[in-house]
Amino acid sequence: MNRFVKWIDLFLRLFIGLVFLYSGLTKLTEPIENFYGVLRQYQLLPSVLIPVIAHVIPWIEFIFGLFLFLGYMTRLSSGVLTLMTLSFVALLGFSKLAGGELPLECGCFGQGSMIHLTPMQVILLDIFNFFGGVKLLLTADHLFSFDRWARKGGK
Q1: Can you list the alpha helix ranges (DSSP code H) found in 100-155?
Q2: Selected residue with higher pLDDT from 80 and 105
């Protein structure tokens, strides 16, 4: 494979991994009620599921973001995060169709985050993460990854 493409894959892996790692971490370090409130504003999720989703999503983002960043179980991690991104896009799309307005705060990075994105910026980030995640999912060998190191016997 072209060496330049491998470096692009490395950038994608690190970037997407960091986005999800940070997103999960910020939600995990805040009161869970903050994320409950964000999920409720979409008015699409059944109330009974909101507590479960609010507890599970940050851990998935954090764990698989870390795995992707490190290049551990890279294909699985990119697949999980790509599906997460697709679900975020669907949630935003359905929210727009149902209410006509996108929420001002998407809940992507938690309330106390240094990063605050407009709804359009969130959509652009999700599109980038989706296509980048698909690219990583289809790539077997990744530079500077635990997967590569383990495949070569720790050398």
Answers
A1: 119-137, 146-151
A2: 80
Note the residue count of the chain.
155
Whether residue 93 lies inside any domain: the answer is: yes
Reading the block at residue 17, the tokens are 């991994």
Containing structural domain, residue 55: 3-147
Predicted confidence (pLDDT) per residue in 100-117, tens digit? 666 666 677 777 777 878
Predicted pLDDT at 37: 84
The three-class DSSP label of residue 97 is: helix
* 119-151 per-residue burial string, b: 16 or more CB within 10 A, e: under 16: beebbebbeebbebbebbbebeebeebebeeee
Residue 154 inside a domain? The answer is no
pLDDT digits (tens, 9 = 90+) for 126-136: 999 999 999 99
* Residue 153 placed within a domain: no
Number of domains forming the structure of the chain: 1
Tell me, yes or no, whether 37 lies in a domain.
Answer: yes
Its pTM stands at: 0.89
Residue entry with tokens 């991690």: 77
